[in-house]
Amino acid sequence: MGKIIVIGMGSSDFTQINGQALEIINSNNKIYSRTERHEVINVLKEIKEIVFLDKYYDSADTIEKVDEKIVEELLKESINEDIVYLVPGSPFVLEKSVELLIKKDIELEIINNQSFADLVFSRINYVTDGYRTISGKDYNNFKVDFSIDLLIQEVDNEFLLDEIILNISEIYPMETKFSIIKDGGLKTEEIYQDSLSNYSRRIKPNHQTTLLIHRPDGLYDFSSLVEISDFLRGPDGCPWDIEQTHASMRQDLLEEAYEVVEAINEEDPEGLLEELGDLLFQVVMHSQVAKENGDFNIINVINGISKKLILRHPHVFGDLNLDKSAKVLQNWDSIKYSQRNFNTFWERLNDSRGLPSTIRAYKIIDKVTRIGFDWNETGEILGKVKEEYDEVIEALEDPKALREELGDLLFTVANLCHHLGYEPELLLTEACDKFVNRFKTMEETAQEECLDIQALDKSELERLWQASKLQ
Fold first, then answer.
1. Do the beta carbons of residue 315 and residue 299 sit within 8 Å?
2. Mean of the per-residue pLDDT values for the chain?
3. Is 249 among the domain residues?
4. Do 64 and 19 fall within a single domain?
5. How far apart are CA 420 and CA 417, in angstroms?
């Protein structure tokens, strides 16, 4: 097996090629290049025979397949002789094919050169406190980190540049600075710097175009929230936050979750934004307490849910074919309970004891109906409701029996709700809202009549109640 010698061509022109690289290029070794689109190649192809691998960009379905095809050819061609492989910029930055070669059991030599990142910072005289480099083809908002600069390479056309700027503008402040560098270090160099709010098409990008999104000032991200939580519970933090435990924050967690639901019910986007933040802080705080206890941290939480979602969606991340929601839910439960070593069905029914009772009742009923334990007709379950009602009447003189019969009646009504396609928790919430609104109307009417609603007798209250129902 021959040796593969990887040479970085740098980020601009032929003058960047060092003596060691030139000596190897001028040897008799066969030369392969990832692409023909580079200033160094414009010089080399006049004096050396080079095999260009751009062909795989047209034949492969994804950029990952491109790299795999390139590596496959390089390995094949190096079986009996040493070969040279030229890559743009630095072999150690955004060069997946080199990463794949490193993982192979082969003799490999890598000669580094200036990366596009080094060139960009030098051309705009910019000192960075830290940055992340990604390819424009891989950009999405989930790769954003507001605490560092974002360097996006391979922004090779106007549509891609416009799309990235548009997506960036949705989450970054509009005063955030950006720099676009095209053909950095060459005679054709163009630099465009401004704020997102003033972006326009002043540069037509090519394969040597890089977009730098400068770190925004005064913008918080998830890591900021974790740091705030850590500080609040630290030596110089808040006495109340320091005292909190998992148990003491249980009520807060419930309240924040219900306030999220309320914002959804009210169709209040601004309220939902705020309440989701409050709920997220609860997750971070509980994770902080667990970290201090030596149990787990927020990274473990994120890693755990990510693994769970991938494992429980084999029809998305794997080869399983599930074309209906019912099949998806059935498969989800199957994976969930196999992980928990549930060997009996009743254990599945007992899996939701921490939920509010109406929600727990609904989930229990939902699970048993999936295996066919359900009412055939609505009339049957209405008859069961009447039966339970009658048993409540019979138990009025027996407190112990009454407690049980009232519970049976509530559970049967929850069963009726499920059978008719309603969630009892939501229905009861709506009923509470209706009662409060009617009582509001009662009090307003009482005030118009110069009456104190808290001082009225039952007959007056009933009069106002009946009047409120007419409005």
1. no
2. 89
3. yes
4. yes
5. 5
> Cα dihedral sign for 146, 149, 154, 158?
positive
Two structure tokens written together for 312: 């429980």
pLDDT in tens, 338-377: 677 777 877 777 777 778 888 889 988 988 888 888 888 9
How many domains does the chain contain in total?
A: 5
Residue 241 in domain: yes
Q: Residue 295 carries which DSSP code?
A: S
**How many angstroms separate the first and last alpha carbons of the chain?**
89
257 in the same domain as 200? no
* 3 state SS of 389: helix
Give every CB contact of residue 469 below 8 A, 6+ residues apart in sequence.
438
Does residue 330 lie in a domain region? no
Long-range contacts made by residues 133-137, C-beta under 8 angstroms, separation at least 24? 133/93, 133/94, 134/94, 135/63, 135/94, 136/160, 136/161, 136/164, 136/211, 137/63
Whether residue 150 contacts residue 131, with contact meaning beta carbons closer than 8 Å, is answered with: yes
CATH of the domain at 383: 1.10.287.1080
How long is the chain?
471
Segment (H or E) for 169 = helix 158-171
C-alpha span between 147 and 130 (Å, rounded): 8
Domain that holds residue 185: 118-213
- Residues facing 211 on adjacent strands: 152, 180
Report pLDDT digits (tens) over 388-431: 999 999 999 999 999 999 999 999 999 999 999 999 988 998 89
Residue 329 domain-assigned (yes or no) = no
Residue type (1 letter), 442: M
Q: Which residues contact 96 (CB under 8 A, 6 or more apart)?
A: 63, 64, 67
CATH number at residue 46: 3.40.1010.10
